[in-house]
Known about the structure:
Radius of gyration: 28 Å
Largest sheet: none
Number of strands: 0
Order of helices and strands: HHH
Number of helices: 3
Low-confidence stretches: 12-17
Strand content: under 5%
Amino acid sequence: PGAAQGGFTDRTETSSNTARKMEIAVGLKKGHVVAKRVMAPRPAQRKGKLGARVKNIRELIRDVVGSAPYEKRLMELLKVGRDKRALKLAKRKVRPSGIF
């Protein structure tokens, strides 16, 4: 008997399409074949995405306050063509200690 009649499917039936689930009791593709549900995105999935309001506020603050001293030094190094030195300085200043 086939899957439509409630029995187990033959492995030969799905050999051409191995990604499809089979109605068998054991194995990686075990279980009843169902359609994949399309879920609405959860609020946690947009975590870390910068909103327009926050972006504008940060931009305004950066214009008023200016750059940090290490950022000024980085810009100066980039102007004179010391790209590798600037990269080393940026890595040392930005990355958290203990990583790399």
